[in-house]
Amino acid sequence: MDKTIINDKLNRPLRDLRISVIDRCNFRCQYCMPAEVFGPDFAFLPKSELLSYEEIERVAKIFVQLGVEKIRLTGGEPLLRKDLPVLVKMLSELDGLRDIALTTNGVLLPRLANKLKEAGLKRVNISLDSLNDELFGSINGRNVGVGPVIAGIDAAKSAGLGVKLNMVVKRGLNDSEILPMAEFCKQKDLELRYIEYMDVGSTNGWRMDDVVTKKQIFDILQEQYEIEPVDAAYYGEVAKRYRYKGTNTNVGFISSVSESFCSSCTRSRLSANGQIFTCLFNGNGHDIRDFMRQGATDDQIISRIADIWNHRGDRYSDERTAETRANRKKIEMSYIGG
Ligand code: SAM
Ligand code: SF4
Ligand code: SF4
């Protein structure tokens, strides 16, 4: 299939698309959807506002024509969206798409892993921030212990999906879990990604002092393990990866705060209600849903998306200061999905 390659103002091509399929979640992680804010009366999107699977497929197909090679499904909790394997199947049949992945908290994987794999899913990233039931239950805000997530990890592995783990590290909360999580993943031959706690949205009360940087995590790991760098697998790879010496097990770091990677950021995001975001920290979404529903043709949608990308100049993490933090219109992580 012929692709039209488009670049943004900083000469970055469009390569990846993250699609949030739902803004709801069965967890209330303190750093993402704090329970005090996302309470029982919180107004989530009604079904009519969500993009239908046909609409998601249509937009995704156009993104692929414009250079996207990888799609990641996310949320909220993507596995809460009814019949998600149906969407996975539709997307996996898109000509020109190389990879389709999913980020999930994992608890619904025992029920869905096989169906997702059969539908064409290749990989899952499962989030797990602690191996201690009490601590994990308090982080996820729903008192869910570690067991259901581990069952999800095991189900994904037995289904033949590639599995990586995501761990957000917040100082004073779960930094004591850095080594236990490393050991657990090493034993299970799982790639763990330590994620620096980010100032996404405006509800998690983020402070720079709460960030445990990649270097600090790396130093803790090095006291226990010998690790060696691994070459980036592809241009724009977000994680910096290392390998435990003498093994094939990797460990990665997503250092969005301390060592930003905006210059190679090729990601666009599509929210559950059909807005395009060009950066995790740029709250100005561009509507595509109503445009489609009003009868826009594929050519008109292609021109709109190309125009949005051509005007993109985002490099928030490169420029992060107290002032840029205060002045940004932010968007919640649960809305555009990390
Ligand atoms: N519910 C799914 C999950 O938790 O994997 C998918 C959506 S979640 C928003 C995607 C990823 O963003 C998760 O790995 C989560 O840990 C991460 N995340 C959420 N808030 C974050 C924050 N403030 N800083 C860094 N990562 C965050
Ligand atoms: Fe839900 Fe994922 Fe956010 Fe946790 S990180 S509240 S699981 S969307
Ligand atoms: Fe990409 Fe924005 Fe993150 Fe920079 S801050 S890497 S532009 S999403």
Task: Name the descriptors.
alpha/beta, binds S-adenosylmethionine, TIM Barrel, binds iron/sulfur cluster, 338 residues, 12 helices, 17% strand, 31% helix
- Structural class, by secondary structure, is alpha/beta
Low-confidence stretches: none
Strand order of the largest sheet: 7-8-9-6-5-4-3-2-1-10-11-12
At the fourth CATH level, what is the homologous superfamily?
A: Aldolase class I
Mean pLDDT, to the nearest integer, reads 94
- CATH class label: Alpha Beta
Number of helices: 12
Topology overview:
Layout: E1 16-20, H1 53-65, E2 70-74, H2 84-92, E3 99-104, H3 109-119, E4 123-127, H4 133-139, H5 147-158, E5 162-169, H6 178-187, E6 191-196, H7 214-224, E7 227-229, E8 240-244, E9 250-254, E10 267-270, E11 275-277, E12 286-287, H8 289-293, H9 298-310, H10 316-319, H11 322-327, H12 333-336
Parallel strand pairs: 1-2, 1-10, 2-3, 3-4, 4-5, 5-6, 6-9
Antiparallel strand pairs: 7-8, 8-9, 10-11, 11-12
Helix pairs in contact: 1-2, 1-9, 2-3, 3-5
The structure holds S-adenosylmethionine and iron/sulfur cluster (SF4) (2 copies).
